Amino acid sequence: MKKWDMIEPYYGAHIRVEIGKLYHHGIYVGNDEVVQFGLPMDVYRDPKTVKVIKSPISEFLGGGFLEVRRYDRKELKQKNSDEEIVRIALSKLGEGDYNILTNNCEHFCNFCIFGKKISTQVDSVHDEVRKKLGL
């Protein structure tokens, strides 16, 4: 289970903010800036207009509380260096193809960190649906 702390972000940190019942994710790149796949409220916009952007952390937070991901030992061995995480995030600026189920802000961050598009939020919704259907 992932752990999140309410601490100051560091260069290359995976950060998130709670928006309603969901979390919006980004990569902290220093100078109070975040690379993120769209802004928190973009989930309600036309997916074709959502792009990877760099913005002030205040826009990322939208009045919410910042959380920073804490990695376990296994994850620390698997993750890219903080410098590589930032390099990958910045290289994706302007990219699109947003899809809430297969290519969202959490997928983006995990790709920068681990090289894999993973979303625990999407996975938990899939698990709930399977339970309700008795699968």
Molecular structure report:
The chain is an alpha+beta fold. It has a single domain (3-133), classed as Alpha-Beta Complex (endopeptidase fold (from Nostoc punctiforme)), CATH 3.90.1720. The chain has helices at 57-61, 73-78, 82-91, 105-114, 120-133, and strands at 3-5, 14-19, 22-30, 33-37, 52-56, 66-70. The chain has a six-stranded antiparallel beta sheet. A hairpin with a 2-residue loop joins strand 3 (22-30) and strand 4. Helix 3 packs across helix 4 (105-114). It is globular. It starts with a strand and ends with a helix. The model has no long low-confidence stretch (mean pLDDT 89).
Proportion of residues in β-strands: 15-25%
**Oligomeric state as shown:** single chain
Helicity, in percent?
Answer: 25-40%
- The CATH C-level class name: Alpha Beta
CATH fold description: endopeptidase fold (from Nostoc punctiforme)
Radius of gyration: 14 Å
Order of helices and strands: EEEEEHEHHHH
Major pleated sheet: 6 strands, antiparallel
- Sheet with the most strands: spatial strand order: 1-6-2-3-4-5
Q: What is the residue-averaged pLDDT?
A: 89
CATH H-level superfamily: endopeptidase domain like (from Nostoc punctiforme)
Number of beta strands: 6
Number of domains: 1
Low-confidence stretches: none
Instruction: Tally the helices.
Output: 5
| Envelope shape | globular
CATH architecture classification: Alpha-Beta Complex
Q: Which structural class fits the helix and strand makeup?
A: alpha+beta
Gap between N and C termini: 23 Å
